[in-house]
Structure formats: C-alpha cells, structure tokens
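If you are new to this repository, start here. Below is one unmodified record pulled from the training split, so you can see the exact layout before writing a loader.
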Amino acid sequence: MAAPNPQTAEFVTLISSDGFEFIVPRKSACVAGTIKKMLEGGSVFSESRTGRCEFENINGVVLEKVAEYLCHNAKNKNVTGVADMDIPPELCLELLMAADYLDGGCSVGDAVGREKLMEVQYEHWAQVE
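And here is the target side for that same chain:
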C-alpha cells in the first residue's frame, strides 16, 4: 500500500516552538493565509511535502488557541449568532501577534477579531489598575 500524499491529506500538523503538535483538518488550517501558502502544492516550502507546519515563534498555549479558532471558524463559517470564543486576557497580545503573522489576507486576523482581542485585553488591564 502506498504512503498517503501529504499534499492531499485530510489533516495537517501544526507544531509550536515548544514542540506541541496539533492535528487539524487541512481545510480549517488553510483559513490562515500563511498556512495555506505553506501547504500549497508546487510550493517551495517543505511543509507542502510533509504536511507539517512548524512555528518557531508561536508557543503551544497560543498555537492551541489558534488551532481551536481555525476549527471553530471552519465549522461556523456560514452560521449566524455563534457565541464568541473564550479568550483569556493574558493571551490577547500573543494571539494578536500570531493572527498578524498567520493572516496573509484572510479571516484569522480580521478587523472584528482583532477588535475583540483588544477589547478583552483592555478590560483585563483596566481591572488590574
């Protein structure tokens, strides 16, 4: 039996800087423009051949929330009235940076999502003071 082709595999692996691995549906992962470009067939990136995306600048806690968002977004793409995800205030800044890095012109870093993250972070710091 031939080995599965990573370029057409249903799932991909996202690997954090601290070695945590998250297996997510390819369709969900490709919501992020950067990941989509990494996985495109014919790409010069090794990720397109292996189906494994390593992020040296995103830790496991943040990448877990990113993976959760990617799956949440794909699942609820055409649904209205979906509840917001629970985002711990202490992760907001790192999630904004990850969203900016992964965005590539698609919804991971959309304006509404960024505004919500900044709102949560502002509320957190207002309570600290």
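Two things worth knowing about this chain: Residues 73 and 81 are 13 Å apart (CA to CA). DSSP finds six helices and three strands in the chain.
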